[in-house]
Amino acid sequence: MATLTAKATFRTTPELKERVRLLAKETNRPTSFYYNLLLEEYLEDLEDIYLSQKVLEDVRSGKEETYTAEEVYKELGL
Protein backbone atom coordinates (compact mmCIF):
# COMPACT_ATOMS: atom_id res chain seq x y z
CA MET A 1 0.00 0.00 0.00
CA ALA A 2 1.42 3.39 -0.98
CA THR A 3 2.08 6.02 1.65
CA LEU A 4 -0.07 9.10 1.23
CA THR A 5 1.79 12.38 1.07
CA ALA A 6 0.86 16.02 0.92
CA LYS A 7 2.82 18.93 -0.45
CA ALA A 8 3.94 21.58 2.03
CA THR A 9 5.57 24.86 1.13
CA PHE A 10 7.45 26.97 3.64
CA ARG A 11 10.23 29.52 3.81
CA THR A 12 13.60 28.94 5.44
CA THR A 13 17.01 30.53 5.30
CA PRO A 14 19.32 29.77 2.40
CA GLU A 15 21.81 28.33 4.88
CA LEU A 16 19.35 25.81 6.32
CA LYS A 17 18.13 24.83 2.89
CA GLU A 18 21.71 24.23 1.77
CA ARG A 19 22.50 22.14 4.84
CA VAL A 20 19.53 19.88 4.15
CA ARG A 21 20.46 19.69 0.46
CA LEU A 22 24.04 18.69 1.27
CA LEU A 23 22.93 16.10 3.82
CA ALA A 24 20.53 14.61 1.29
CA LYS A 25 23.21 14.53 -1.39
CA GLU A 26 25.81 12.88 0.87
CA THR A 27 23.36 10.22 2.07
CA ASN A 28 21.61 9.62 -1.26
CA ARG A 29 18.21 10.49 0.17
CA PRO A 30 15.69 13.07 -1.01
CA THR A 31 15.54 16.35 0.87
CA SER A 32 11.91 15.56 1.69
CA PHE A 33 13.13 12.63 3.79
CA TYR A 34 14.98 15.03 6.09
CA TYR A 35 12.26 17.66 6.19
CA ASN A 36 9.78 14.95 7.23
CA LEU A 37 12.21 13.55 9.79
CA LEU A 38 12.69 16.98 11.31
CA LEU A 39 8.93 17.51 11.52
CA GLU A 40 8.31 14.09 13.03
CA GLU A 41 11.08 14.53 15.60
CA TYR A 42 10.25 18.04 16.78
CA LEU A 43 6.60 18.79 16.04
CA GLU A 44 5.30 17.00 19.13
CA ASP A 45 7.73 18.96 21.33
CA LEU A 46 6.63 22.23 19.76
CA GLU A 47 2.96 21.31 20.24
CA ASP A 48 3.64 20.55 23.90
CA ILE A 49 5.41 23.86 24.42
CA TYR A 50 3.07 26.20 22.59
CA LEU A 51 -0.25 24.50 23.25
CA SER A 52 0.51 24.13 26.97
CA GLN A 53 1.04 27.90 27.13
CA LYS A 54 -2.49 28.36 25.74
CA VAL A 55 -3.93 25.94 28.31
CA LEU A 56 -2.10 27.76 31.11
CA GLU A 57 -3.55 31.08 29.93
CA ASP A 58 -7.02 29.49 29.84
CA VAL A 59 -6.60 28.09 33.37
CA ARG A 60 -5.44 31.44 34.72
CA SER A 61 -8.32 33.28 33.05
CA GLY A 62 -10.90 30.76 34.29
CA LYS A 63 -11.75 29.43 30.83
CA GLU A 64 -10.28 26.01 31.66
CA GLU A 65 -11.48 24.11 34.71
CA THR A 66 -9.05 22.27 36.97
CA TYR A 67 -9.54 19.41 39.42
CA THR A 68 -7.59 18.21 42.43
CA ALA A 69 -6.24 14.67 42.49
CA GLU A 70 -8.76 13.88 45.23
CA GLU A 71 -11.63 15.01 42.99
CA VAL A 72 -10.36 12.88 40.11
CA TYR A 73 -9.94 9.80 42.33
CA LYS A 74 -13.45 10.26 43.72
CA GLU A 75 -14.94 10.65 40.23
CA LEU A 76 -13.16 7.48 39.08
CA GLY A 77 -14.12 5.57 42.20
CA LEU A 78 -10.54 5.05 43.33
Write the layout of secondary structure elements.
Layout: H1 14-27, H2 31-61, H3 69-76
Helix pairs in contact: 1-2
Explain this structure.
By secondary structure, this protein is mostly helical. It has one domain (14-76). It has three helices and no strands. The protein has helices spanning 14-27, 31-61, 69-76. α1 packs across α2 (31-61). The radius of gyration is 21 Å and the shape is elongated. The termini are far apart. The mean pLDDT is 92.
Give a brief outline of the structure.
By secondary structure, the chain is mainly alpha-helical. Helix content is 68%, strand content 0%.
Share of helix, binned? 55-70%
Strand coverage percent: under 5%
Mean pLDDT value: 92
Structural class: mainly alpha
What can be said about the biggest beta sheet? none
First-residue to last-residue Cα separation:
45 Å
Count of alpha and pi helical runs = 3
Q: Give the helices and strands as they follow along the chain.
A: HHH
Shape: elongated
C-alpha-based Rg, rounded: 21 Å
How many beta-strand segments? Answer: 0
Query: Can you tell me the number of structural domains?
Result: 1
* Low confidence ranges: none
